[in-house]
Amino acid sequence: MERDPRFDDGEEPVEQVDGQGEDEASTLSESSPDSPESDVAGSMEEELEAERQRSAELLDQAQRARAELKNYRRRTEEEMARMQTQAGERIISKLLPAIDDLNRAIDLMDDESRSSSWGEGIILVQRKIWSTLESEGVKPIEAIGQPFDPSLHEAISMQEGANGATTVIQEFQRGYMLGDRVLRPAMVVVGNENDAPAADPESDEQHTPDRLFDTNE
Question: Which of 27, 142, 165, 189 is the most core-located residue (most Cβ within 10 A)?
């Protein structure tokens, strides 16, 4: 057998083990960043990140929608309460003139009329009316002997010579409040404190609505 001239230096050729070259090529192919497997992994990672962002956006939208619904319910409840309060104020305000007439009629009754069956019936009706109004938060405005308060009192005149006076000495029309809101201010005369009438328990019992619906009387 003739000797291969490429190995004239005396070295023998090394035989290649079957399959060794293929394994090395396969390993190189798998580790290559441009291999199909790495492309698939990168694509899946990108899709996963996109889904995470989309989930975060949907969660944010859901939270915003929930907050808006909560605020809408709160505004609706407040609006309903406000409308109910206004409706109650309108109804009670329309009843006040009739209540004034009933109070005046009772004020004009003498002792004999008060003790009669029909007189007691009228007073009982007045007590029931005021009991109902009180349960709704209606209360009379204190006026006589009180410092003049323009938010509660409406001065229709001032006592002659009482310049600078700040005390209510006479009440022409009783005022009323519903909770902390003024239904109708009291119509009063302003004068000197010394001119205010002294408190008369019997007069208070006859004219003050909150005394009239006392069931112990």
Answer: 189
Type of residue numbered 101: D
Q: Are strands 167-173 and 176-178 parallel, antiparallel or unpaired?
A: unpaired
- Separation between Cα atoms, residue 165 and residue 158, nearest integer Å: 8
CA distance 144 to 174: 10
* Residue 10 pLDDT: 52
Instruction: Answer positive or negative: Cα dihedral of 76, 81, 87, 90.
Output: negative
CA angle 136, 141, 146 (to 5 degrees): 155
Entry pTM = 0.58
Joined together, the tokens standing for residue 145 give 């002997």
Does position 209 have pLDDT exceeding 50, yes or no? no
Looking at residue 175, what DSSP letter applies? -
Specify whether the CB–CB gap between 175 and 153 falls below 8 A. yes
Q: What are the CA-CA distances from residue 72 to residues 59, 100, 125 (Å)?
A: 20, 42, 44
Instruction: Give the start-end residues of each E strand in the chain.
Output: 138-140, 153-158, 167-173, 176-178, 181-184, 186-191
User: Residue 26 has which token pair?
Assistant: 């396969």
What is the per-residue DSSP string for 95-148?
HHHHHHHHHHHHHT--HHHHHSHHHHHHHHHHHHHHHHHHHTTEEEPP-TTSBP
Question: 176-178 and 181-184: which strand pairing?
Answer: antiparallel
- Per-residue tokens: 7: 């190995």
**What token pair was written down for 87?**
């409706």
